[in-house]
């Protein structure tokens, strides 16, 4: 028999996780404040229990998928946590996760945290992965079960790291797509469709991650880790002037300019800080100050 697992929280993500465990033969116990959300899972073989205490008693491993970490405290308050491995896949700030680790330990449990890098329909799919942090021996012990949800990517012992990675990934994802939509809006002002622009955008985004001379993700990472920011013919001043033109183009197109202005202002603050002759990675000097 495969290892039993408990799922606490049956929103879209929690239901997708419970269904994945059931499909892969894991005895699955579920609990949710609104019990009716478990109906389809019960039809698939899940055991619905009335209280969080019963849910935790059913399995050593409890996967938690709720709105936030406060929901975990509210749900599990008063339940016997001793000996349980809590795998919280909810979103939260890194410090919040660290406090949760202390709370779990004080109550006799161990905490693994995770950042889920796929929407609910992707759970269990070939491209799904979850970044885990916390005691690695706990992940190793339950890796076979958790792999049902997606690839188990371990990022470190600090329980806050999983969501630090997660928030960084979300920011990169959202800001890239928002910039894509700003770009489309600029082109639409001249009658260019989103589909006409899509192949050019795809080429640009794809080129960022390649290993060749245009692989800017690699180049920037190497420069930041080395503490260098070569400018030369592609100076920060040149790029700040170019950012001015992006703002002017957005204004002329009659679209929202807050995003382009924020980028333009970041570039000029970097120039004003004395990095006009340096390269793009010199913006890290402004970003790190948080001012």
TrEMBL record:
<feature type="domain" description="6-phosphogluconate dehydrogenase NADP-binding">
    <location>
        <begin position="5"/>
        <end position="154"/>
    </location>
</feature>
<dbReference type="Pfam" id="PF21761">
    <property type="entry name" value="RedAm-like_C"/>
</dbReference>
<dbReference type="Pfam" id="PF03446">
    <property type="entry name" value="NAD_binding_2"/>
</dbReference>
<dbReference type="InterPro" id="IPR051265">
    <property type="entry name" value="HIBADH-related_NP60_sf"/>
</dbReference>
<feature type="domain" description="NADPH-dependent reductive aminase-like C-terminal">
    <location>
        <begin position="158"/>
        <end position="289"/>
    </location>
</feature>
<dbReference type="InterPro" id="IPR048666">
    <property type="entry name" value="RedAm-like_C"/>
</dbReference>
<comment type="similarity">
    <text>Belongs to the HIBADH-related family.</text>
</comment>
<protein>
    <submittedName>
        <fullName>NAD(P)-dependent oxidoreductase</fullName>
        <ecNumber>1.1.-.-</ecNumber>
    </submittedName>
</protein>
<dbReference type="GO" id="GO:0016491">
    <property type="term" value="F:oxidoreductase activity"/>
</dbReference>
<dbReference type="InterPro" id="IPR013328">
    <property type="entry name" value="6PGD_dom2"/>
</dbReference>
<dbReference type="InterPro" id="IPR015815">
    <property type="entry name" value="HIBADH-related"/>
</dbReference>
<dbReference type="InterPro" id="IPR036291">
    <property type="entry name" value="NAD(P)-bd_dom_sf"/>
</dbReference>
<dbReference type="InterPro" id="IPR006115">
    <property type="entry name" value="6PGDH_NADP-bd"/>
</dbReference>
<keyword id="KW-0560">Oxidoreductase</keyword>
């Amino acid at each position: 028999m495969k290892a039993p697992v408990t799922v606490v929280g049956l929103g879209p993500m929690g239901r997708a996780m419970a269904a994945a465990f059931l499909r892969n033969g894991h005895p699955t116990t579920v609990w949710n404040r609104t019990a009716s959300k478990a109906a389809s899972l019960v039809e698939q073989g899940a055991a619905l229990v009335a209280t969080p205490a019963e849910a935790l008693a059913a399995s050593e491993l409890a996967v938690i998928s709720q709105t936030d970490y406060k929901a975990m405290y509210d749900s599990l308050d008063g339940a016997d946590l001793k000996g349980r491995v809590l795998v919280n896949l909810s979103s939260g700030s890194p410090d919040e996760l660290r406090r949760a680790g202390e709370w779990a330990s004080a109550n006799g449990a161990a905490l693994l945290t995770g950042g889920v890098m796929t929407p609910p329909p992707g759970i269990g799919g070939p491209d799904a992965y979850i970044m885990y942090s916390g005691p690695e021996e706990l992940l190793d012990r339950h890796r076979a079960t958790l792999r049902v949800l997606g690839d188990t990517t371990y990022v470190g012992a600090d329980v806050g790291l999983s969501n630090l990675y997660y928030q960084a990934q979300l920011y990169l994802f959202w800001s890239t797509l928002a910039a894509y939509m700003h770009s489309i809006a600029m082109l639409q002002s001249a009658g260019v469709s989103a589909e006409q622009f899509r192949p050019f955008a795809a080429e640009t985004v794809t080129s960022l991650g390649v290993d060749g001379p245009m692989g800017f993700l690699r180049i920037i990472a190497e420069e930041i880790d080395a503490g260098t920011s070569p400018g030369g013919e592609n100076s920060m001043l040149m790029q700040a002037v170019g950012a001015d033109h992006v703002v002017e183009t957005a204004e002329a197109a009659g679209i929202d300019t807050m995003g382009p202005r924020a980028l333009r202002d970041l570039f000029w603050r970097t120039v004003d800080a004395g990095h006009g002759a340096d390269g793009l990675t010199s913006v890290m000097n402004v970003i790190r100050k948080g001012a």
